[in-house]
Amino acid sequence: MKKYNLSKIMKRAWVLKRCNSYYSFGKCLHIAWVEAKQARAKAEQEAAAEAQKETAFRQGMEITVGYSTFTLRRWQSYGKDRIYINHGMSNIGYLDVKSGNIFGAPRKLSAEAVKAHEIVRSLAF
Fold first, then answer.
1. Please, what's the largest Cα pairwise distance for the chain?
2. pLDDT-based confidence at 37, cuts 50/70/90?
């Protein structure tokens, strides 16, 4: 984790002190720290939002787990919203987007298929 830039925080505290002479320097330093923490939190939120955009679902996207490649197709009709998970020509189930549950999967799934189901659940819609 990157540390705070103490020099910038101290300079900001002095700017606040010059602008608000009725504040004590301790109060100005406290305000500068709060601003620095809020700026860091905002930057982390923006980074998380950017990362989420990169993992957003795209029609026909492929997920590679181990040596297996899975294709995802979304179907929306009749009030239903599903993402079908295909491995080659075989269907290994679908994710009901509204409930977040996997249906129609065969009884025995390979470790790669189980991992693919976990990845599909974590995608941003």
1. 74
2. very high
